[in-house]
Structure formats: structure tokens, C-alpha cells
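Quick one: FMN reductase from Siminovitchia fordii, C-alpha cells please.
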Amino acid sequence: MRLLGISGTITGSKTGIVIRKILEEIKQNHPDIMTELLDLKDYQIQFCDGRDPSTYAEDTKRVIEIVSSADFYLIGTPIFQGSITGALKNLFDLIPPPVFRNKVMGFIATGGTYQHYLVIENQLKPIAGYFRSYVAPGFVYAHNDHFDSNNQIVDLDLLVRMSNLGEEMVRMSRALTHQMLETSNFYG
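--- reply ---
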């Protein structure tokens, strides 16, 4: 199984720090799972203009391929102006919806106010619902106070929630994969 962590921003570092930490822990605890980080700031992605995704070139085409080949996702975004980033929304617009169908998504968000955790409930989970993805029951919201001046995570409760989210995602993805295999074997 292949887990793709997506840092859905082209600015800042806290979102990527949280995602990397979760991916590292999953890799350590589950060496059979391949993990990869897709950091949007490392790519020059075109704006979605409604064309067939196969017609995009260069970085955009590569990113579509990376996302399409994953089995489950850890998706993160900083919260700006009470919403997900435009870069992450653009990524969602570029990916054909069937790519995410029946795959597990886990969400993390970072922000400067404690109310911004609601963006996960009010924006990210409905997007996952549209894609017919399965959403991990837990999620992680990291406030600026959870980091020290060097952007190191210093909040122990946050670290526990990060670990719990990683384990939920692995259990869900394995259970769904097992169930799909049993169903396909039953129906031939």
C-alpha cells in the first residue's frame, strides 16, 4: 500500500512539518507501507481550466500521476481567511474524482486561531464526501502555539493526536483493501 502525504500549500512550513512527522511514524510502525510526501511548493502547477487531465504538461502532469497512484492520503493545509488554500483547491480540481473513490483520507490543518479547526469539518470532509472517499474519524488541527520558535512541535497532546490519526488511517485502509479483495474473490 502507498500512502501519499499532501502538503497543500506553497508557503509556510508548519503543515509540512506535521505531515512529515505522521508519515515518518507510519513508516516506522508499518514498514510495509510506502510513504511519499507531495509538497505543493516543490511544483509549478497550472491552474485547472477544465480540460482533460491527461493534456496537462510537466509538473502538473507529474502531480496528477503521483496523486492518482496512491492508495490512501494524508492531506494537510494551513487555514487562510477561514478556508483551505487555493493551491489545495486547485489540486482537488485537477484530479479526476474517480481517483479518490473508495480510498481513505486523513486531514490535518494548521492555523493561528483555535476556531479554524472547523474548516476540516465544513470544507475538507464535504470535499471527501463528493469524491466518495472514506474519511478517518479523527483529524489533527495544529495551532501556532503547538510549535516553538524553531517550528518544532512541543505540544504532547498534538503528538498523540498525530499518532492516533496515522494509526486510524492505516487500519481503515487495510480493512477496506481486505474487504474489497474478499468481495472481488467472492464475485469472481
